[in-house]
Amino acid sequence: MSEKGRVVGRFAPSPSGRMHLGNLWSCLLAWLAARSQGGGVVLRLEDLDPDRCRVEYCDQVMRDLEWLGLTWEGEVVYQSRRTQAYTQAFQELEEQGLIYPCYCTRAQRLAASAPHRSDGLSVYDGRCRRLSPQERQKLAWTRTPAWRAEVPDREVVFQDLLQGEYRENLSRDCGDFILRRSDGVYAYQLAVVVDDAFMGVNQVVRGSDLLSSTPRQLWLQERLGLPHPQYGHVPLLLAPDGRRLAKRDRDLELGQLQQHYSAPQLVGRLAYGAGLLDRPEAITPEELVPLFTWDKLPREDLVLQ
Ligand SMILES: [Zn+2]
Prior knowledge:
The protein is α/β, with parallel strands linked by helices. The protein is 34% helix and 18% strand. It has 2 domains: 8-83 and 192-303, 3-Layer(aba) Sandwich (Rossmann fold), CATH 3.40.50.620; 84-180, Alpha-Beta Complex (Glutamyl-tRNA Synthetase, domain 3), CATH 3.90.800.10.
């Protein structure tokens, strides 16, 4: 899909509603990072979860990106249409003996794990890995399992474009993680790894809330024989009270923002927050391209005033 050496970044929004300021922020930075190196961006709609995603939101996401002036290249990829590719990758991992069924209920999972990660996620204790074949058979009568990857006791280290060196021990800091839910939906970790490779993505710029999922993705890439993209995790925009922005922050949704700002005004405000402008003046993404460098970006999360 890409010429050799050319930077291919990506937008990977989840179409579960209107985009909010936080989504726009990371899309703008991903676009600028790729464009400033003479590259471009591809678009993938992460609509795997049928409970949360709707077709009309997919169209809305594309209109919102276009409105801002954030262009993409090539065919749009919908994760909901990529199940076959995920199944193939899942089977490859299964053949390597890296997958086991987990029969834990949600309550058991919470009780079985120690919430000692900085991001509030908990580490699964691996109890279903140790089940005997007889125990598995018995549990299978009453429950449809989720499927977990068995991670090694190994440290994964990588250089983040913004955060510097990041390291994590897979079994201690992360634990065996779910690759397929009990309802058959493939997990985010597996889908993004398969899709990034399929789309030729070699630079992933996204919010720092995903920093800690990167070691898992690097490990999956290794097991599946896929190339490692470069990663850059940008700070998050936080609500005035320090919370992460969420769907309920209606006033920061693009539909609302459009009533107060033109696209260049909004881009200018985001660029000002990113340290790319001295004042929040109106500007187009295209005009920002020569102004982008990683050195200017803040490393700490930004609290909106
Ligand atoms: Zn389990």
